[in-house]
Amino acid sequence: MNKKQILLIDDEPQILKTVKRYLEAEDYEILTANNGAQGLDIFLKENPPLVITDIRMPGISGIEVLKEIKGKKESDTEVIVISGHGDMDTSIEALRLEASDFISKPVDMEHLYLAVSRAFDKIRIKSRLREYTKDLQGSVEKKTKEIKEAHAMLLQSEKLASIGQLAAGVAHEINNPAGFVSSNLNTLEGYFHDIVKVMMRYKEIHIAKKEERTSLLEEIKQLEEDLDIEYIMQDIDELIEESKDGVNRIRDIVVNLKDFSRLDHGDKEFFDLNKGIESTLKIIWNELKYKADITKSYGKIPEIEGFPREINQVFMNLLVNAAQAIEKRGRIDITTGLISSDKGQDLVEVRISDTGAGIKKENLGKIFDPFFTTKDVGKGTGLGLNISYKVIEKHHGEISAESEVGKGTTFVVKLPLSLRSCPEIS
């Protein structure tokens, strides 16, 4: 087993010899130096866990040795000072400088032994504390990582829920025009076969004998009446126009979906906020049309800088929440405009108001907190508004809510025109 190492620094050879002999008998390994400069050289080379130094020495004093040792951040060395008569003030100063203990001359060996024992106990405790702190830090980091991963999974779950909701609405909106286009095509297929029948009979006239043509024409006329060819020719035009309208509606839905998600634009850019809201409305129309009448008042606003896909997600959350807050049938008002902050900064303001149930006053301050929801169990994760808050915060904007129970809620979003110069908004 390695002996515990102690560095003795004293300019009096007799004291150095006596203390060295005593501590070696107690099974310590002793290094010696007869002045402060030599002691510091040995300390820097050997880094002993304990230094015992006289206070008064020529050249570098014991106080200076203490300051030098304690000034090294990586050093855990403890220092015991030896003081003579009349050095009480200096001894107190040494304790203030984090000396482990002080011993008065003449040195009492029993007192010295106790001081050395306490110093090594302190070293051992500090070592254990360091290990415990390291383990605790590792545990905290692990838990923090787990919490972040769990939070990321919940955020992803919320996004997937939004995508699922969005997909269901889009599927419904596409299904309607796709349904009647499919029906029209089936009808046109039947009309095609009927027209082919008539055309084939007309073809027979070219190869029929002259005396047979009159009867053939009468048969064709009767066939046209039976198939109602006149109606078919009129209906074909209407079916084609309806089908073209249905295909155009599907095309518009796809274009709006592309504008909403901006799949080809994941970077920061300047974009039309009004157009983004309009695209979002069309994408989630199936969620809104059965619950609310929509009124829109788009102001004349310049393009703003940001991440359009994320901003569109915010408006989707706010609009769907507004619809869900309406029990039977109500109204959702959307207003955009240009305002100025108290500091003279131009801002775009969006207000989304509903005539829903409203939010209780005691809950209004919690709505942007993660996991907070007033919805029934299974109908919300409590992350939609938290995600919206983070997105607006990322854009150096503000989002707030005004509400009155029984009358409805208004969400107010304020965004700077550019992210390059964004003083705090007030």
Low-confidence blocks of residues: none
Question: Quick one: overall form?
Answer: elongated
CATH fold-type name of the largest domain: Heat Shock Protein 90
Helix content: 55-70%
Structural class: alpha/beta
Written description of the protein model:
- The chain has 426 residues and is an alpha/beta fold.
- The chain folds into three domains: 4-107, 3-Layer(aba) Sandwich (Rossmann fold), CATH 3.40.50; 158-259; 265-416, Histidine kinase-like ATPase, C-terminal domain (Heat Shock Protein 90, 2-Layer Sandwich).
- 56% of the residues lie in helices and 18% in strands.
- The protein has twelve helices and twelve strands.
- The chain has helices at residues 13-25, 36-46, 62-70, 88-96, 109-207, 210-227, 229-261, 273-283, 285-288, 308-325, 361-364, 384-394; strands at 4-9, 28-33, 50-54, 78-83, 101-104, 269-271, 292-297, 304-306, 330-340, 346-354, 398-404, 408-416.
- The strands form three sheets. The protein has a five-stranded parallel β-sheet with strand order 2-1-3-4-5, with helices on both faces. A five-stranded mixed β-sheet has the order 7-9-10-12-11. The protein has a two-stranded antiparallel sheet with strand order 6-8.
- Helix 10 runs antiparallel to helix 12.
- The model has no long low-confidence stretch (mean pLDDT 83).
